[in-house]
Each structure stands twice: as C-alpha cells, then as structure tokens.
Specification:
globular, mainly alpha, 77% helix, 182 residues, 9 helices
Length: 182
C-alpha cells in the first residue's frame, strides 16, 4: 500500500470516528432518558447507553453508509432496547441493595414528585411492557414503529400497551388524578 493510500484510509477512519463522535454526543442524553425509564436505575442506564454506543461504533462505517439520520436514531433505540431486554434475561438480580441514598429536596413546583412517582410505577412493569410504554409515550412512536423496534406484531404492541396502562392505573390508584392536575 502506498503512503497516499494509507493516508486516504486513515483520513476515512478519522472522518468516520468524528462522525460517530458527533452522533454519540448529540444522541447520548436522549438515549440515557429512554434507558433510565426502561430500567429505573441511573448506573444501569449509563451502562446501557455506553454498551449501545460501543455496539454502534463497531459497525459505524457500514451503518452510516446504509442509513439516514432517522434510521440511525431508530437503530440506536433498537440496540438499546435489545441490550436492555438481553440484560434482563441474563441478570437475575445478583446485586443486593444494602442502603439507598435519600433523594435531594425538590424545589416546589418543579414536577420532581410526579417524575419520581411515575418512574417508580414504571419500574413495577415487566421489561417488555415498560419498553412499549416508554417507546410509545416518551419517544412518541406509532404502534407500527414500536412493533418494528421490538420485532413483534402490532396487535402484540396494542395488547402490551393496554395491559401496561391498566397496570399503571392500578399502581397509581386514586392518586393518579391528583398527580396530573396539581
């Protein structure tokens, strides 16, 4: 290989690395939000995002050539979701929580009580149900898009969505009306 060919290959790798860095820096926060709502754990959400981005980086050149921006975002969500579901299947909670840190005091009217209540309610849903709710309502995806991301039928998404919302209503109980009107 000539030095010109080496420089061109090196420049292409550098361009790909810069493109991935830009993609990762602009998408990491949103991926973290989705991951946190799915798993309910700050550190696990960070790990999920890091694993997702690492998996994407390993195939970035091929991905970037075959996808547009929305396609890359959809691929990132799909990798995140599959990583989360895979970890839930493999990890049968080998960690034991010894103590929990108290939540910092919230400023009045900042909505943190609502967020904490909804996050706690989401944690009580099974992983796939939680994924459907997060993808449907946080990510504002259509039923068809959620079905494609999860690799299931639209009727399965509708069923999971209906059961999940009913479960959330049960979990939140009569306080749910207060939560959304305060």
């Amino acid at each position: 290989m000539t030095s010109t060919a080496v420089r061109i290959v090196g420049d292409n790798r550098m361009d790909e690395a810069l493109a991935f860095e830009e993609f990762a820096s602009t998408r990491a926060r949103r991926l973290f939000q989705v991951a946190y709502l799915m798993c309910g754990d700050w550190h696990q959400a960070q790990d999920l995002v890091q694993t997702t981005l690492a998996k994407m980086f390993s195939v970035w050149g091929r991905l970037r050539r075959g996808q547009d921006e929305p396609g890359l975002d959809a691929y990132a969500r799909k990798v995140l979701l599959r990583t989360y579901l895979s970890q839930k299947r493999l990890r049968r909670s080998t960690e034991i929580v010894a103590a929990e840190l108290p939540e910092p005091a919230a400023a009045p009217g900042d909505g943190s009580d609502l967020r904490l209540t909804l996050t706690a309610a989401l944690r009580q849903l099974p992983p796939r149900n939680r994924a459907v709710v997060v993808l449907r309502y946080l990510e504002d995806n259509s039923i068809e898009a959620v079905a494609e991301t999860l690799g299931i039928s639209t009727s399965a998404v509708k069923s999971l969505n209906t059961r999940s919302l009913a479960k959330l209503r049960d979990i939140l109980g009569e306080d749910r009306e207060f939560l959304f009107h305060s």
